[in-house]
Each structure stands twice: as C-alpha cells, then as structure tokens.
Amino acid sequence: MGLLAVHFLKNYYKVKQVDIVEPDIYRHKDALSFGVTNIFKPSEFIGNIYDFGIECSARNKAFGVLQKVIKHKGEICILSDGNKEEFILMPLTLHKRYF
C-alpha cells in the first residue's frame, strides 16, 4: 500500500519530496526505485516537521510516529485497513486534522 501511495504521489500528483519511515532495511531499495526522497527509521524523528502524512502499515506504533511528526494543523490520511491493530489517537495531537 505504501509503495502504491508513493507511486501516485510522485507520478500523478507531482509531489517533489516523499519521505518514508521504513524499519526494514531490505525494503529500502524498492522504496528508492519508486522515487522516495528520504528513508528514516522510526527513532530518527524529532517531531512537527511535516504538513501531511499517510499511514499505510496498519500498525499503531507507526501511527504514533506519524502523529508526532505532523505540524500543528497538519493532516493525516490513513490508507491501511486497520485490521492488524487498533489505532490510538495521542492526546497531544487531538488539535490536528485527520481525514
């Protein structure tokens, strides 16, 4: 789901920079071939740096990282089906917009 999202962002919406969080190093090469700009580990983020983010993993831990890195009044889109884990909205991010 994540690589498909990257493909559409880069090729149809002409987004210049697409950064991802991918803990599995074996998936980095594929992500780069789809046009990802930067690949980060979950622990490398400091917070509040992105205007928009997409959750594709269906993992609450990844959703938590995404909530931390989105700016005030930023937006999150959830593309994963959520059948793996329940997503928990962090109290400090309740003021952000979610779709």
Globally, the shape reads globular
The sequence of SSEs as H and E is HEHEEHEE
What is the helical fraction, as a range of percent?
Answer: 25-40%
Number of helices: 3
Total count of strands? 5
Oligomer: single chain
In the sheet with the most strands, the strands line up as 3-4-5
Task: Let me know the average pLDDT.
Answer: 86
Proportion of strand residues = 15-25%
Instruction: Show unreliable segments.
Output: none
How would you sum up the major sheet?
3 strands, parallel
Structural features, described:
With 99 residues, the chain is an alpha/beta fold. The protein is built from three helices and five strands. The strands form two sheets. A three-stranded parallel sheet has the order 3-4-5, with helices on one face. Strand 1, helix 2 and strand 2 form a beta-alpha-beta unit. It is globular, with a radius of gyration of 13 Å. The mean pLDDT is 86.
Provide keyphrases for this structure.
99 residues; alpha/beta; two-stranded parallel ribbon; 5 strands; 26% helix; 23% strand; globular
